[in-house]
Each structure stands twice: as structure tokens, then as C-alpha cells.
Amino acid sequence: MSFRKCPVVFGLAMLGFCSVVGETSAQAVPDTDIFLVDLSLKGKSLKVGQPRNITQRPGYDNQPSFTPKGKSVLFTAQHPGRQTDIFEFQLSSRKTSQLTNTPEAEYSALVTPDGKHFTVIRGKEQHLWQFPLQPTAGAGKSLLEMKQLIGYHVWSTPEEFFVAAFPQQPPMALYSVNALSKAAIKVEETVGRSLHKIPGQRAISYLVPVSDSVAHIQKWNLKTGEKTTVIQALPGSQDFAWSPSGHVLMARGSKLYIYKPGTDPRWKEIADFGAQGIRNITRLAVSPKGNVLAFVAEK
């Protein structure tokens, strides 16, 4: 199995690797791990605990996402000599199990709104597939095939999801997809890889370019159709996440920042994990209860 680095998107170098199959040797896959950090809301501020490594081994561990009740984390991993598969880490038992074991590569696992399945980007064609959360519940099935390569996706409702896709090379465009008819409508010409449903709102968010060096986090109210800017992204960073308390989290290097729309004037640094040997934090995800943050970092 081989990979290619993600090309530059609107002037921001893509950090890590995206779900694009290509020509660079597998040795180029970065050595990354997934860390969990406890979060607690104290007044209007988020307090951050100490990071703990849940994938402490050589190789590629990336793209964490929480299950609906926050009891486990799904993630992408590549074991030596194999393609990427999807794994699950149980927070209480600290046990890891393998959810997919196929000849094709799977990336970017997200639990579907019914809570019984998860969707992934699969194979060199980069189609969207669905698998049962319980491996004994049956085989996977194709959910969406496009002429474009699907890079990333997010569910908004059981009837609608969004994909970021591109013909052969980024930039990626954002498409709204009807889950039943599979009809896809382009809604943004250029977006980044971080797509999120905003907790407690009928809205999604994503990065959009403003210039070669500036990008904004944009909110799209799916009820009214209104699109508004949340805040300018941190320079050189493209991954962010929302907490149920309404905070946006983003990282730069070894540092973690938060921003509360309507409250904070700008990004505020809340942690620096450099002393723990953590660098280049990417791929953030917050648990449904807002008490745990997952992120990817190089060691």
C-alpha cells in the first residue's frame, strides 16, 4: 500500500496525511500517535489535564472520532506491511480492537446518526462506505460513489451528510448529499479537511480560504441557509473541533487554543504540551459530553 502527501490547499500546507491513495512510498507515512486529554468547564473557561498516549507504538495512528456516548474512540491505523484499517479504543478498559480487516484501505471513521454503523473513506477510488459497529453484524456496503475523490465527510442528520471531494488534486469542494437519493450538490468551491457538525445546533462548520495565507472557520446555519465567519484560523493550522459548551479548539505546534464565539475577542492559549515531547498537534475531536479531547501529534 502506498500514499501521497496532500498537496497545498489555499496556501496552507496540509499537515500530516489525508485519505488520498497515491505514489509516495509507505515509509513516508508519519509516525503519529493519538492522545487523550481530560477537559473540565470551570466557569466560562476550559481546564485541560495531562495528555495520555493511547496508541504508543511505531506507525501511523490518526483521525480520531468519538462514539455517540463517548465511551470509545475510532481511529485509523496502519500496521507494518499493511494498508490502513479502522480500530476502536475503549476508554474504560483501555482495550483496542480492530473493526475492519479488508484488502482495501479505510480512513476517517465517523459513527452514523443511528449509532449502529460507521462510515469511512475506502479504497483507491475513495468512495464512502458503511460498516456495522459490531463486526459480527454483517459486511460493509458502498454508500456513495462520486466521479470526484472523496477526502472527508460529516453527518448533519440521518438524511443528509456533507463530503469534501476533488477530481484528482485538491482544492476540495464541499458537497451536500441526500443520504437516500445520493444526489450531491456543490455548496462551496474550496474548503479544508476539517468538517464538523456544531453541537446543539442545526449547523456545520469548515475552513474556507480568504487569501494564500489566511483561512476562516465558517458556520453554515442549515435551517436558515446563512453562512457566517466564526473566527480566523490560527496561521498554518487547519484542524479544529467544537465542545458542547460552544468553545472552538484549535492547535498550533505543541500549543492548544480555545475561542468562545460571542465571548472571547481572540484565540486564547490554554495549554502547551511541549514539555511532554508532543509536537505538531493535528486532528482534534471532543467527546459528546465535552470531558475528553482527542488529538494527533508527532513524537
In what range is the share of β-strand residues?
over 45%
Task: Output the structural class.
Answer: mainly beta
Q: Count of helices?
A: 0
- What's the number of extended β-strand segments? 25
Largest sheet, in brief, is: 5 strands, antiparallel
In short:
This protein is an all-beta fold and 299 residues long.
What does this structure look like?
- The chain has strands at residues 32-42, 45-48, 52-53, 60-66, 72-78, 84-90, 96-98, 106-111, 117-122, 127-132, 141-144, 149-157, 160-166, 172-178, 184-191, 196-197, 203-209, 215-221, 227-232, 240-242, 248-252, 255-259, 268-272, 279-286, 292-298.
- It is mainly β and 299 residues long.
- The strands form six sheets. Strands 1, 2, 3, 24 and 25 form a five-stranded antiparallel beta sheet that branches. Strands 4-5-6-7 form a four-stranded antiparallel beta sheet, with no helix packed on it. It has a four-stranded antiparallel beta sheet with strand order 8-9-10-11, with no helix packed on it.
- Strand 16 (196-197) and strand 17 (203-209) form a beta hairpin.
- It is globular and about 45 Å long.
Furnish the topology, listing elements before pairings.
Blueprint: E1 32-42, E2 45-48, E3 52-53, E4 60-66, E5 72-78, E6 84-90, E7 96-98, E8 106-111, E9 117-122, E10 127-132, E11 141-144, E12 149-157, E13 160-166, E14 172-178, E15 184-191, E16 196-197, E17 203-209, E18 215-221, E19 227-232, E20 240-242, E21 248-252, E22 255-259, E23 268-272, E24 279-286, E25 292-298
Antiparallel strand pairs: 1-2, 1-3, 1-25, 4-5, 5-6, 6-7, 8-9, 9-10, 10-11, 12-13, 13-14, 14-15, 16-17, 17-18, 18-19, 20-21, 21-22, 22-23, 24-25
